[in-house]
Design a protein that fits this description.
2 copies of one chain form a homodimer.
Chain A: E1 3-11, H1 16-23, E2 35-38, E3 43-46, H2 49-63, E4 70-78, H3 101-113, E5 121-131, H4 137-149, E6 153-157, E7 160-166, H5 167-180, E8 187-196
Antiparallel strand pairs in A: 1-3, 1-4, 2-3, 4-8, 5-7, 5-8, 6-7
Helix pairs in contact in A: 1-2, 2-5, 3-4, 3-5
Chain lengths: ~200, ~200
């Protein structure tokens, strides 16, 4: 299954170029397992689905150091039928969609509870798009149940849902939503915004 | 049909708060016909589908004055089944999906050719998501044909397509894609990024 993201960083600061460039080393631990391509609009990350959100977390936390108001936006996708299958995107073993939804919710909650703390509070906003046939609404409702019990649920808004909390728990919650719900072979996309250090506190 | 967008502005400058606040007057001509709600992550615009992209264009051009590198991100939606129908979202008359696709492509191209110039070059990146049943692939292919002939087509990337040109033509192209293609009553969402004055020219 092809999986990856188009990722952009927006540091609201005059020296945004330096901030972005100095945060890129946060991706170094992931480079061997990812294809990474940058242009003027975004950086493509293609690689193992279970490492996409940890990579984005480390990148965003690095760019948000020193209390910079910094937003990460990502267009995340798995199973896009227009994309070639790629061995570097193979999911890890044991992510079994045969497991009943209730059990997957519990597994996801356990993983979020064990997420490392990053010491950086973030607010996130996501829209989850299950595309094509084969995405049972049970899967979507299971994901919503998980998000509401994740400990970082914010609120429902028009067109999206918000999460709030430590970057560790928020990105872990996003990753579990991406990996464990929706049709296993289906096309699933997420429109994701994560904000740190906003002066407009919720 | 419920239509609207969650819109965010990201000026890459120390005085981002002043830039954002001083650009909001660009929405004044639209306020009477829109419901507008702001929190720390985005601003909700709910209103007539044919005015969503002009409103976002005017907002983004205003915030990009004085050569500020400024990005607008929007989660745009029409026909979301979870949203109440709303009289302010009623499409204008004459947008008839009974018209053959080839004729709609020509109408869209004519509208883009007549778009006003804004004097601001932008780069845009969009992912278009037709959700649920009823979106014939013919509609999607028709939209892609239109984008490629729009005069502002950039390139195809993983997970998205880019456009480049004057903000007038780019936002007009986006608006036509949103209004004229996909199932008329179906749920259609766009994950949109528009960037002005990037120091990383393509």
């Amino acid at each position: 299954m092809f999986s990856g993201a188009q990722v952009s960083l927006y540091p609201m600061a005059d020296d945004f170029v330096r901030i972005i460039l100095s945060s890129l080393s946060a991706l170094d631990p992931y480079r061997a397992r990812f294809r990474i391509e940058t242009d003027d609009l975004s950086t493509l990350l293609v690689g193992p689905p279970q490492e996409i959100f940890p990579a984005m977390r480390d990148l965003h936390v690095a760019a948000s150091r020193n209390n910079v108001h910094c937003v990460l936006h990502a267009t995340v996708s798995r199973g896009c039928p227009g994309e070639p299958d790629d061995p570097i995107c193979t999911p890890i073993a044991g992510r079994d969609f045969g497991t009943p939804i209730a059990a997957r919710v519990e597994e996801a909650l356990a993983n979020v509870a064990g997420a490392p703390s990053c010491g950086q509070v973030v607010a996130a906003q996501l829209s989850l798009y299950p595309l094509g046939a084969g995405h049972h609404m049970d899967e979507i409702y299971g994901c919503i149940d998980f998000l509401k019990r994740s400990g970082v649920f914010g609120k429902s808004k028009n067109f999206c849902t918000t999460l709030r909390g430590d970057a560790g728990a928020v990105f872990a919650t996003l990753s579990e939503a991406f990996l464990r719900f929706g049709s296993p072979a289906g096309h699933l996309a997420i429109d994701l915004t994560v904000s740190a250090n906003s002066p407009s506190k919720a």
